[in-house]
Structures are given as C-alpha cells and as structure tokens.
Amino acid sequence: MKKYLFLMPLLLLARLSINAQSIKFADLVYFTSLDNSAVHSNLLQGDSFRQDYSIDINGHPIEYFKNIVGKPGTEKITVGNFTKLYNGTVLRTVTYASANPQHIINMIAQAKHYGLGKTFQGADESNNIYLFDNSFYHVSIYLRRDQTSGLVEIKQKEYLGVE
C-alpha cells in the first residue's frame, strides 16, 4: 500500500510535465528584441524547440519552430516578421501558436502578470480576443471559441519618449 501512495503523486507529476507549456510569455517578449539567429540559438539551447522550416519572403527569412517535448508539434513559434522604420529601427513580431487551449489561457495570465494592460476583450465568430498593450509592446491573443487552439502575437511598438 505504501508503494501506491508513493507512486500516485509521481504519476500525477509525470502527467503534468507531459502537458507542460514549453515556453513562457516573458521569453516570447525577449525574442522580439533578437534577430532570427539569436532566437534560433536560444530555442535550440532550451532543448524544447527545433526549427521546423524557414522561408524567404521579400528578401528576409521567416523561421518556424515547433516543440519537441510533451506532445511534439503542438506549440509553434514564428520569428522574422518585422517593420522597418524610416530611421532604420526594426520593430519585430513574434508569434506563438498552440493546439492546447490551456497554454493560451496561461499566456493570458502571464501577460497580465508581465504588467501589460488589457485594452480589449471580446469575440468574433471563431475566436475570443484579448488585446494587451504598454509603451513597448502590443499583444494580441486569440483563443478559439471551440477550445481547440490559440495564437499569441507580440509586436514591438515604436517608443516615442521625451528626448
């Protein structure tokens, strides 16, 4: 009987780690400040993601990564999209998608904890939509209404500070 009492919590812990989220919201925000090669290095060091493929759009590479832990292929990260300003500043966009709705719900909680203010919460015919914002980032989070998947998009903003 003592063996079972020890084994049950161990099995529950293993079950939780199998479905654990592979990346945190703060990591995605950090990736907006990095170029593709730096993001690539960071994700490969973490041993949770690998590069799925890369495509070239209008002369700049867009890289796609997918998770290799838990249920492989259920989490995806896209980097390489950016807007270049007239002064040469590059504003990057990082996208995270998950087939597990709990991961998206966790991202909503982490965005609030990160200090972003919620500017909108609503829905369209297919998604629940959550928009967060501060002086540096605009975050759009879409959670499918049928609870099958979701998407997080983090965009850097041009900071207009006092000089």
Structural description of this entry:
By secondary structure, the protein is an alpha+beta fold. It contains four helices and eight strands; from the N terminus they run αααββββαββββ. It has helices spanning 2-18, 25-31, 36-45, 101-113, and strands at residues 49-57, 60-67, 75-84, 90-98, 117-123, 127-133, 137-144, 150-156. A hairpin with a 5-residue loop joins β7 and β8.
Give the oligomeric state of the chains in this entry, treating copies of one chain as homo and distinct chains as hetero.
single chain
* Number of E-type strands: 8
* Main sheet: strand order: 1-2-3-4-8-7-6-5
Give the ordered list of helices and strands: HHHEEEEHEEEE
What is the average of the pLDDT values? 87
N→C terminal distance: 70 Å
In short:
With 163 residues, this protein is of the alpha+beta class. Helices cover 29% and strands 40% of the residues.
What labels would you give this structure?
163 residues, alpha+beta, eight-stranded antiparallel sheet, 4 helices, 8 strands, 40% strand, globular
Layout of helices and strands:
Blueprint (H helix, E strand, L loop, with lengths): L1 H17 L6 H7 L4 H10 L3 E9 L2 E8 L7 E10 L5 E9 L2 H13 L3 E7 L3 E7 L3 E8 L5 E7 L7
Antiparallel strand pairs: 1-2, 2-3, 3-4, 4-8, 5-6, 6-7, 7-8
